[in-house]
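Researcher: Structure for this, please.
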Amino acid sequence: MFRKLLSLDEAKQILKQNFSPEPVGVERVSLSEAHDRVLAEDIMAPMDVPPFDRSTVDGYAVRAVDTFGADEDRPVALKFCGQVTVGESPSIVVEKGMAAEIATGAPLPKGADAVVMIEYSTRRDDDVFIHRPVSKVENMMEAGSDIRKGEKILKKYQRLSSREIGVLAALGLTEVDVYKRPRVAILSTGAEVVEPGKPLPSGKIYDINAYAFSAAVLECGGEPINLGIIPDDRTRLKAAVERALDSADAVITSGGVSVGPKDLIPQVVDTLGKPGVIISGIAVKPGKPTTIAIVDGKPVFSLPGHPTSSLLMFHMIVRPIICRMAGRTEETPSTLKAVAATKMFPARGRRTFVMVNLTYDKTGKPLASPVPTGLSGAITTLARADGFVEIPEKQQFIDVGTTINVYLFYE
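Model: Predicted structure, token format:
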């Protein structure tokens, strides 16, 4: 039997009181390995970007003052003094009355402070005729106009996407300090569970949860460690969970948490360290048997065997913890405002999570409809659902047309 069914809010509060998730460490990685990692330091620009004054067009580098008064009918004549190409450090100097041919991206030669676009110039031998005036810094980028040396360009706890990695490369950096990925051991339990790829005897099912959890842990920034399937045997379960605790920063088990004679996980975990089991059952549907323990500073999340139940509880309880341990600040699933397409009813006296899929009306407004199954173990629910809706314990129903928050299974 469950010691005490807690509300979801009570369970979260007890977990918060007993475990404070923090990043598990820092490591230095190359930019090629940095995607989706979390910065463990502020990044201060070690240089200006661009590092030199550069042209943004093909044309002629000039002194802006020399072009004043130019127009189509009365062009200003300047003397050609050379050419600047991309990738070279120019040795020429643009003096009064001179113009240097320049390519897009090339550094401005000394003396020049603007660029005339090639379309507004004509060259005849050593004479360059300017048909339109330019002002200072026109058609060019000044050194440091994008990034100034010493500027804080990226912040600690920022996730690194292709954009941020591009900025790091522009600064000449090849490595960066990031938070380590928390190692999360995953155990499946039960005599009925078989590893995918093996023959499936009568009465058996393939192990869904280990692979779903592994993917979910990766999505949180963690490193999953799949320790396989353990039969419902007290000695073997204890050894497996001990091994998981030794090799990981957190542990997730699936199955073995209900009230049957083979549901041994809570009893086993409670003997492995202090304070042991802190939550033994939550008043939610699905996910009621969820058990949580803290074993000598490490969390052990024992989730139901039913795939839909376990994945929902992962998103509501486990995901925020793994995210924080990975250094991420986004703790809860992404949400989307949608309109209820049908009535949705909760289970009496329990907070209820309804799996929904999303469609869109003619105006582009998202509509949420319950996935057509009431079974927490139904496999197709996982594939059909875009997310889930939360109905509080005391709410009788969600009416058609109500605007609701949909917790998304994707970012």
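Researcher: Any notable elements?
Model: The longest strand covers residues 351-360. The CA atoms of residues 241 and 325 lie 20 Å apart.
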